Amino acid sequence: xxxxxxxxxxxxxxxxxxxxxxxxxxxxxxxxxxxxxxxxxxxxxxxxxxxxxxxxxxxxxxxxxxxxxxxxxxxxxxxxxxxxxxxxxxxxxxxxxxxxxxxxxxxxxxxxxxxxxxxxxxxxxxxxxxxxxxxxxxxxxxxxxxxxxxxxxxxxxxxxxxxxxxxxxxxxxxxxxxxxxxxxxxxxxxxxxxxxxxxxxxxxxxxxxxxxxxxxxxxxxxxxxxxxxxxxxxxxxxxxxxxxxxxxxxxxxxxxxxxxxxxxxxxxxxxxxxxxxxxxxxxxxxxxxxxxxxxxxxxxxxxxxxxxxxxxxxxx
Length: 316
Ligand code: SAM
What we know:
Blueprint: E1 2-3, E2 12-16, H1 41-53, E3 58-62, H2 72-82, E4 86-91, H3 100-106, E5 110-114, H4 120-127, H5 132-144, E6 151-156, H6 165-175, E7 178-183, H7 191-197, H8 202-211, E8 214-218, E9 224-228, E10 233-237, H9 243-247, E11 251-254, E12 259-261, E13 271-272, H10 274-278, H11 283-295, E14 314-315
Parallel strand pairs: 2-3, 2-11, 3-4, 4-5, 5-6, 6-7, 7-10
Antiparallel strand pairs: 1-14, 8-9, 9-10, 11-12, 12-13
Helix pairs in contact: 1-2, 1-11, 2-3
S-adenosylmethionine is lined by residues 21, 27-29, 31, 62-63, 65, 90-92, 114, 153, 155, 182, 184-185, 187, 189.
């Protein structure tokens, strides 16, 4: 297991496998990246293997839209052979129908599906496309294939979907999905959009606190709280100005052009690993590059937590 100098274990590798997307969401943070695609299946597999040697036992594939990659099944099959505890994917779900069972067979453990609205008009205003029906079909197929637990990712947007959160929770209850309410992050988006649409999720969280039969603090997942309402679970993701969130971050990211990215909020401390792959460096050299990226990890929001670094990143 690898720990950064703030004592945070790094257990998750989050890989942007493409920037191509069939949506045009105005709020998309593009995983904090601004680059083009370069990673091959072989590159991804090699990085996952090295990550696993360092204790990163969970992989999340993201994008762009991962389902736009024609070699996705091969990629998942090859990652699955490495033997991780979880291979998950974040998707918009519009291309899931017809492929979900292949993904499950290839070894995908579960999916998070973005569902910004249950109303066709609002869905189209947010995503720029009218594919809500397809997403619904994809969700049901993913469930039938056992790609569970399925989480519905809902970025809460003032004036767009903030009045239908409870309808989405009802929908999740009916289909046994988990809802993830996500606070809009000011990354790669226009300031004016952020000012208009950002909603603090404090009130929502208070409401959930009063009704929950159980509250789970997910220590290795940014210390997010998951509220069990008895018949449905709702998780709240509040990254903005939240030192607690940063102090419990266990992720290392890989950008679509093959750089290790210590923090979604920053692009000034990326560590190139693609060149090392291309010139055929061995695992011990790749491990050094991973360690360099982990060494650069800093909680972005430190605030009152007064996070202190202790020594260097280390493998224990
Ligand atoms: N195309 C896939 C999808 O739609 O889920 C994966 C990529 S998307 C960038 C990954 C996740 O980031 C989605 O759940 C999306 O809603 C969320 N997201 C995008 N922009 C965001 C922002 N500005 N703030 C918070 N979450 C955001």
